[in-house]
Amino acid sequence: MTVIGSHQARGRAGGGEALPGHAAIRIGHFEFLNGYPLYYGLEKGAGWGCFQLVRGVPTTLNRMLLAGQLDISPVSSIEYAANPGRLLLFPGTSITSDGAVDSIRLISVRPISEVRAVALTGQSATSVVLLKILLGQQYGLMPKYCALSTGVDDALAGECDAVLLIGDEALQEYHRGRWPYSYDLGELWKRFTGLPMVFALWAVRRSFYKARPDETLEVQERLVASLEYCRRHWDEVVAAAAREYEFEPELLRAYFAKLGYNLSEECRRGLKEFFRRAEAVGAVKQAPEPEFV
Fold first, then answer.
1. What pLDDT is recorded for position 156?
2. Best CATH choice for the domain 104-193 from the list 3.90.1010.20, 3.90.440.10, 3.40.190.10, 3.30.830.10
């Protein structure tokens, strides 16, 4: 986990500072490239009050949000499903794909229908459950699962014949094309259900929203504004991302085009279907009805 800076701007509360007696709003920041457009536009806008961005992988941010160490953060879809009473969702932001997503992949030395043992990334909870749904419900498989504690090469040279990767590492392995089989989980989900896949949501702790509702809504508005800025300035966003990440601009442009950041009605149907199937495989006790600020 890395704190990457505090920002002060005029904000709805006024004056360029947090409300009197209020600490800075602690906001989670995905480390991965897929979250880049959610934050890039913030630097171009007026901002809001006083806030602090805290960078981490999804599982780290999940844990910090639920522990009260963050106030607002992207959260894995499955983590929200397991804790709906503690969180409220932002209706206008998410990370989704309507088909292939490129950065959530099963890398394998054998066809997916023959997979017997999978090494799982520890960086994403949603992707792990999604893989178990697909392997169990679509392919009728019950492979052995273990934690990915080594590099991809070592894992596939050992007892595992497949590895689940997410984020920038998954993108790199996909474009290197080193392995005989590589499966995009977003694409598999779309073929299986006909629906988009919602990988992450934006959430606020209910207690924080109750105490500071105006500032929470200001954060939501600024995130939406950030996305709108990026949609109008993709050339600028791609060029900036190419300076921070080891990917060519053409790859970045194609990757961003596959991602969705809103939460349309079709995405909400996909989210509910994911919750329903997660309940069926025992990943959550009960599929929740999403609740929004």
1. 93
2. 3.40.190.10
